[in-house]
What we know:
heterodimer; A: mainly alpha; ABC transporter involved in vitamin B12 uptake, BtuC; 14 helices; B: ABC transporter involved in vitamin B12 uptake, BtuC
Amino acid sequence: xxxxxEKRAEPSRLMLYATPVAAVILTMVVGAIIFSAIGYNGLGAxxxxxxxxxxxxxxxxxxxxxxxxxxxxxVGLSIAYRxxxxxxxxxxxxxxxxxxxxWVALATYGMTGWWILPAMMLAGIAGGAAxxxxxxxxxxxxxxxxxxxxxxxxxxxxxxxxxxxxAPWKDPMGxxxxxxxxxxxxxxxxxxxxxxxxxxxxxxAVIVAVVAWFIVSRSVFGYQIRVVGAAPHAARxxxxxxxxxxxxxxxxxxxxxxxxxxxxxxxxxxxxVPGFPTNYGFTAIIAAFLGRLNPLGVIFGAFVIALSVxxxxxxxxxxxxxxxxxxxxxxxMLFFLxxxxxxxxxxxxxxxxxxxxxx
Amino acid sequence: MSPDFIIxxxxxxxxxxxxxxxAALGELVxxxxxxxxxxxxxxxxxxxxxxxxxxxxxQNPWLAVLCAAAAGVAASMIFAFLTxxxxxxxxxxxxxxxxxxTGFSALAGQGFTGRPVELFRSVFPAxxxxxxxxxxxxxxxxxxxxxxxxxVAVWYFLKRTRAGLILRAVxxxxxxxxxxxxxxxAIRYGAVAFGGAMAGIAGAAFPLLLTPQWAERMTAGRxxxxxxxxxxxxxxxxxxxxxxxxxxxxxxxxxYAKAGGxxxxxxxxxxxxxxxxxxxxxxxVLISLRxxxxxSAPACLGKPFIPST
Lengths: 359, 309
């Protein structure tokens, strides 16, 4: 018996949404086998990573807090990737957003007022967008590949944190630790559910995704980025400027990453530390793909990634699984998803041997 | 500045540039075949941990380099299967490979952090390298000579051999190459495997040539710089060599700054650490000012091959 791939007239919508779920399930199955093969408790690892955070209600708040920045960054990336603009420097834009917000928090240290948090948000958004403007400028003016520039800027931004917390922003009472002082009350995000760690950023993330979905599916801007991404030539005939799209998508994805940086520094961190970049900018790429570059889908993708992060921490304490394991699970999900893409565009047909002979 | 000091700097520059040169040579061949593999950083990390573990357990650097190359090939085959056999998006798959390599190397490196390993030193007799000038010729690790030989070999292969011509044809016009009977997919598999082997060796050069230990993410973006260097070099091996040495110089400055080099203290050390990345952007800007890079890029770069039949 032989199999043959046959191109579908139109991409299968069923496969488009079934493959991410299948990728997660396959990752659990194959992950269990691989981790057993290399001497860990494979079944236990899958159970602790993918199930325990769901059944243990104490972990739900953790899931929400971890998913929030992934949703916000992932939504921005999904918009850029749809337009075939490969911003992979979200981590750097997240850092710059966090630094800009920190600057406002330190400048207003000791002050009170409702306006401080909105000012920090604006600073974070501006910081992320400004940092994404560099690859946008270089791409549109000089044709420099945005993948490389946005990524190089990420490495540079991390050095900027190191410098700022080591020298000018260092906490004078910090006993020599390279970190800023803890933000004053007015510069910290309030929690929305009392006695939990669920901060204002969590509901904001969901609102961002819904608003983005509305814009992408219902507005001319959304139509434009889809056309530019899918058919650049047609887009040019239709009067959509490619350069304008590059600018818009990079600025939007940078602004959202910067916003996420502000929410993180004002929420869970409450101060700037060298460990502020925690890979959200990179794992959000996986979240965006798992969500099929659809803002509402990104909520699902971010949730799955948050699951693997929180579960990874659980597995570390309960069965001694190294923290790096969750990164492998995340990469496997993306591999399986990309492999499954072929089912969206092609269908598998069984070919009987005699038919092959007759041709 | 004494001549000894200058020679010491030159030797550091050559060492620092070697991993980038190795990885970039591999990526150059991959891209010439029309494939864009952005997983170089991930394959390097897999090569680095493989090379480290083998060198640590067997004390045999030759075996370590060989195993690192094999590990790089294995990792590259994940990419090849997804992008060539299943025609998955190359950009996304390359990113996935880098994320995978980062996680894999961190997992495999558990318990090895900070353990020392023997450097892969020069194989020439020490008497040959007593004078500083001779040290510049004979004082390097075999990896350095290997990288230099590969520059010539890759140039010769692409420019002067029939196989190289076919590989370039596949990268410039896959449909024509297919229609005159060459297997585009098989040739691209071969190119990706070569890129994987070179990235694996480049990764092994980190513990064996630069810092004799394992550290998570020790390649620190050098794989991405290698990708940028291929663009900078306009897909030419000898220009790649010049570019790699330029970056070796920038990284050497960083090393001296970290060690507290007096003259470099006028700016914060973090700026020197950021310099290789900023220099990469500067170099990409410069090359785009001088020419339209798109014209020298292989025409089929990054596009999946789907025969019409």
